[in-house]
## 1
Amino acid sequence: MKLKKEPKLKKKLPKIFVWTYLDEYKKNKSIILKSIDKVFKSGNLILSNEVSNFENEFSKFTQNKFGVGVNSGTDALQIALMSLDIKRGDEIITVSNTAVPTVSAIVSCGAKPVFVDINEKDFLINSDLIEKKITKKTKIIIPVNLYGQSADYGKIKKIAKRNNLKIIEDCAQSAGALYHGKPSGSFGDLSAFSFYPTKNLGTYGDGGMIVTKNKKLYTLCKKLRKYGMSKLYYSDKHGINSRLDEIHASILNFKLKKLNSDIRKRRRIAKIYNENLKLDDLILPIENRHNYHSYYVYVVRFKKREKLMNYLKKNQIFCNISYPFPIHSMKGYKYLNINGNDLKNTNLLSKQIFSLPMYPELSDSKLERVINVINKF
Ligand SMILES: Cc1ncc(COP(=O)(O)O)c(C=O)c1O
């Protein structure tokens, strides 16, 4: 019997994800497993040497004096707010184009978020619009260093001083970025970082840190992360349970050493995108003058976003939108009664922005494929 010739199977192209930790893990598996093993063998799992080493090293890295390791970036923001005695009715100025946690931390303290529009070009808080939103109830400004780039602290610090406001930097996305040569996290009275896996400095689970130069605030934050206790089993202030654990701190101690080189790799990828993406009307991200962008994500703008993203998906390239919904438009925050008519760029950009694959281990061949596929759209 003569068999029919099998039709040649078309080889499926490997998937390209917007982000993955798997290549990094493959490369560093033995170091990471050794670090975890060392913790397990040490007899100390919570708030011990790995955490205090990391607090010291990371606060130095951000040019702060103190660091308090906590369970997440959301907790870092909430504890920072609690340390400034934020209460029901206080107003906090921030943006609506951010991750929900920026706002959920404010709401968890009983305060009210007040949104300022973003710049069309860099997606960051428009500092010229901040003062219009200041009232007698305003206590704090939380600029979000979105996508890996610092907000305009030259202006923001002056506004805060003039109006007697504190600044908490939301640095969840900006570890390793610089503004006028100074690190992200060095401009706030307190600054909050996330070590969620996708972040520039990400662990293999959850983690966060508050950094500050102020000893009083540091002591308070340290207390607040552990039920408000300064001595065992006695709370002298209402606090929460939010500890960075030894396992994640040990991974972060290793990853901090390679953060700058990881960011250089991200910047190289961004440069290759910038120089080679040629699709008409695809607007590429900008790096502001005096900024060193850490490219947590590479965000482009395109009017027919869904069409382009679907086409990329068909070609096994998976992108992400951060963020498709401005916070003021979400059901969970409808009670704030913010119509958002004055948040024009926020509303417009949420319909057009999306991020291309970006992580330090993204190979040149994958990068080339993303660029070629986009250019052929
Ligand atoms: C801008 C911003 N703020 C805060 C957070 C909260 O960080 P975490 O996920 O560690 O709670 C994130 C991360 O999702 C973020 O992107």
Note: The two ends are 47 Å apart (CA to CA).
## 2
Amino acid sequence: MRWINKFNLPDPVVKAVQRDNYNPGKSDVTVTRLVLPPRVAVLQEIHREHIVEDISDGFFRMLGKCVHKLLEENDADTDAIVERRLYSAERLQGLIVSGQLDRYELKTHTIQDYKFTTCYSAQNGAKSEWVGQLNLLALLARENGFPVENLELILLLRDYSKTQGERTPNYPPSPVLRVPVELFSEEKAEWYLNSRLQAYISAKSNLPVCSPEDQWRRPAVFAVLKPGGKRAVRLFDSEEEACAYAEAAGSNLSVQKRCGTSIRCESYCSVAPWCDQYQREKASAVEE
Ligand code: SF4
């Protein structure tokens, strides 16, 4: 990966962001990689050398690492295992799988995983990739002699605002949240691991497409607007419903289509420049 510094940020910030102590150990694939959409995982491997990232985009990742480190240091005397990499006992479909435990509570047999994320993500509950990652970690933990009874996400909300919390319904009640995660049965977890391994391996020879869920697709909506207004009075999934509402309400309300977006492709996928699926979809959205 190559770094650029679009905003001419000072050296200490650049160095801190570039510092990378990530080490997947002696494994062929990590659980974090396995839960990615296979297309993303494989394109990242192919274009590893060409991926360009701006220092500003790596900033929150760096903050996340700092928080991890601080929490780890303050966990030394507790009844927990922290930051331990675990490996599969044998090759699975030809690959050694590893995963890093953020924290394992010895008394309660709970795996906790810290996620540095946004309030929007927290409001939408645990992402399926997070649930998958924790359950794969549970599988590795059991294999390494640690029983698992509970899974938990500790969400650290980087954009939390107390004042917004007072005004917004369903806003997270605190900047740090404990979110319990469904623990799969061993059979389901084994099945899940095998299907992710299969999808990852077959993507190397036959690149699959990303699903709307993989792309974090938000469908088009129809906004009802006051004359001259930009903020929607109401949003509807269908144009018919929006028009009927505007007509019934009178007051010269108008209806505006807001195009759907693929949030991951547009803002969070490092391989978007090399992804023909996304480039095609973007071109056809412009033509619409
Ligand atoms: S750009 Fe979008 S479609 Fe392409 S790999 Fe990334 S998430 Fe998938």
Note: Residues 217-287 form one domain.
